[in-house]
């Protein structure tokens, strides 16, 4: 691997999609700055990236705090010019309307939309100074469809999507590629496997077809693709789902 | 006019759309509860409704305060069963990405989306107890398109729209009609007329064609239509724009 | 009823939605011109309208024939100025991809899209001469979602919708109101009731809740509403579905 | 280059996008079957591919003829298993509603939608026999927006898009990747350059920024990306436009 003089920041570097993205960009020679709520949980990711010869810095980070986001991205940019920034904070909850507390509604928005705004704006500030960069936002089915029980989550994901469009239209002509991914199915995570088991038992788990769940690595490839598109043919929105998925 | 034993609540009873809606429902016999930030500004509305033989209660109200919304709607429901609730709080601002402060981003969301959630949930609670009702949310072009400069506003309007969809899918089968209006053009307000004048001078104002701007009364008719639809053919989303509008 | 000096043309005046629309406009004083493939099947409609004091002319009509559409609309316009034209030809079929013959694919498009174009263009020609009019197109779920088995039907309904948008953007400023309705559920027809019975037996039919299926009259009200909107606040697209519908 | 035992068929192998796609797949080792109306016009493409060490068969082909499409694809599949099929027939015309003849409306649909259906169905038949394949359809801005003057073109492009969705939902679980690209801007072609010159003179041409127009090669990369996606994370719809484009 040849190390580049460039940084990729991942806000919301969780165990699955976020980690896979971090590894992908590290494997491509980027210095990765990985942030999530609990810094301790990033040790495995850092070790794996370094074992593979890559570079990774980790930070505990609350994406809802302007100063933390600003500090994190400034540090990333000092390590090497910030060239790509991925916002991947999730906040998937499901409550009936009457049981959605104002606290839940606010918190989900703060994590999934407000944090995305802070991240996007501060990354844009740094990228505009360099004259280029990619800003990639993780969306979900709930970004384009407000389903039952998702008043809080869909509202926050819609919010992130609308914001991403405004960013794209303003920043595209300034050479910042802003894209929004619609992850329209279950990713292969412990959470999803447990849910499948809870609903259908061991048989349901055993009966999963090959490639029925999304491998986080496959999703990471989509982020890499978007980042490496030629600027005369940029994509703003990309949906991904497994071949078997009903949609 | 025959007075009904039913209340229509308008959150965001501004001088134009909000007032027109209030007058329409009052003219149809509803007791209107009109709320906006400054109670004083509701005096004219109240006087006009009463002069026409209608009933109107007014309240100063911060739609971002859970307890104020709850109190307002409970009082409305005590006056007579809450049958229709319109959320019409606006927060149209335009800033470049880098000049959008976290305060603006948060405040616009709190007004346009969070307030809509509080309103919708509390109105739903009351309506579910009665077994029926209409929940109508005011959207805008920015509800479906994130344009340049609208990172905050589009994000908030998208958020309201996603939430309205979740509400509709859950509450529809419980006999609550949830609808979202996309007001896709300039309404005939002092603000819009001043903007036209600022851009094109007196000639631009004088050159406005008949019906080129939307009369708030015409918009109010759309809210009334949605409220009075038969429940076997409910509309969830309705766009309105003047015949001359480019879109 | 007061008779107006105006004609409403219904292309695709079938037993349910089309007939309900025809009756509604007749009841509002319009001379109705009703066309469908088999003229004989229009006798009941004509009798009912006339029994109610309305005026109705009927014609056998193949909506895929330019000369037949032109003749039909010209005759309608001669009876009294053509003020509203509804295109309501259905062609709902479901075939797996490999079993969709070129003949089916073509025919469904000819009925649902090409016929709509011929109707819309010729009605527009007459309305532009008068300086006003409404052009209303019937869409379906398949207008906005290409589901399994609907390669032919969804393609045709998408086609009609795209065309309606182009018509609307060009003709709106010329005072022709072009709108597209998305009928997003089963209408209460013999066909739908038979399908419910075939799937779930008599119990399923008996178990239908009140207002679970759409009454064609309720849908006709939506067409009437669109036609009577003030031109400073026109709607282009309107979805309708019963309150209980999953969507 | 290593030659694969696989064929890529391009229906609508025009001078720009279609040729670029053909070259890309040839460069990746696919035997390319290139079809367009006039076989003679394919000689340059064939020569270029062969000069680069690739394999290319060319055919004159009317995409509106079921037997021609069937023969073409069967021949392609006999040369080596058909693994990817691209439908790229264009038919961009602009006429006011009243000047859109039934012949134009029909022909544009036959080329852009009906031909796509024939291509897709016959390719699917062959791919299902092999158990895998990619079906890629070229869309445009008019696939998602019916603009003024595009009653025929938008209708046809909407039709293709609706069809592609139905194909995707049925064939995805059968391991056929169906995707639709929204080419949302001008490609760098002689036609587009002439139009720019006609509107703005030599200065407009000279003033074109780098990457302001899309290089067909960049678009071809998007087709390649879609084809090579892992099936646990397939994209159905991909938009592409240059970084400077207003949208």
Walkthrough of the structure:
Four copies of one chain form a homotetramer. Chain A is α/β, with parallel strands linked by helices and 247 residues long. The first copy, chain A, is built from seven helices and seven strands; from the N terminus they run βαβαβαβαβαβααβ. In chain A, helix 1 crosses helix 7 (216-228), helix 3 (66-79) runs parallel beside helix 4 (102-130) and helix 4 runs parallel beside helix 5. Chains in contact: A-B, A-D, B-C, C-D. At the A-B interface, helix 4 and helix 5 of A face helix 4 and helix 5 of B.
Question: Main attributes?
Answer:
homotetramer, 247 residues, alpha/beta, seven-stranded parallel β-sheet, 7 helices, 7 strands
What letter string, H or E per element, gives the SSE order of chain A? EHEHEHEHEHEHHE
> Overall pLDDT of chain A, averaged?
97
Gap between N and C termini of chain A, in Å? 39 Å
The 3D shape of chain A can be described as globular
The beta-strand count of chain A equals: 7
Low-confidence stretches of chain A: none
What fraction of the residues of chain A are assigned to beta strands by DSSP?
Answer: 15-25%
What's the gist of this structure?
Four copies of one chain form a homotetramer. Chain A is of the alpha/beta class.
Q: What is the secondary structure topology, with strand pairs?
A:
4 copies of one chain form a homotetramer.
Chain A: E1 7-11, H1 17-27, E2 31-36, H2 43-51, E3 55-60, H3 66-79, E4 82-87, H4 102-130, E5 133-140, H5 151-171, E6 176-183, H6 190-206, H7 216-228, E7 237-240
Parallel strand pairs in A: 1-2, 1-4, 2-3, 4-5, 5-6, 6-7
